Amino acid sequence: MNKHIGSSFDEEGVREESHAPSLLTEIRTSDMPAVYQRFADVVRDRIWARRVEKIEEEIKRHRFLKTYLCAENEIAFSLNRCRELIERGAVDAVANQSDLYAAISFAAQSLSMIDMATPVEAKRLCKRVAGDDRSKGKDF
Description:
Elements: E1 4-6, E2 26-28, H1 32-43, H2 46-61, H3 66-72, H4 74-87, H5 91-95, H6 101-116, H7 119-129
Antiparallel strand pairs: 1-2
């Protein structure tokens, strides 16, 4: 099954170049593992794994915050789920879980913006996507 959530990636997960740079708006579900892997390589997947660990610790101390914290950090939890599936070798499972679509779309659009940016802008964007507080407030 190859549903669209929209694509310009080849079989190896490399973004196919068009004549004019534009924001990626579509990827195929079959592209999801490659998109995630490239995003993890560019932004570093341990960042959201640590974030999820911290949130889970906070939930243990304050159970009443679980719904709120999970909703506010949905992308981090979904990216962490992708990481776990891929680490277990369940690469195809990434494409078959619709609850991961928002996180993969975020990853694809972030990569698209990084690809269109200058090297300085790309570095800043990577830091911002990773949640680096030092990057906030700086102009792109």
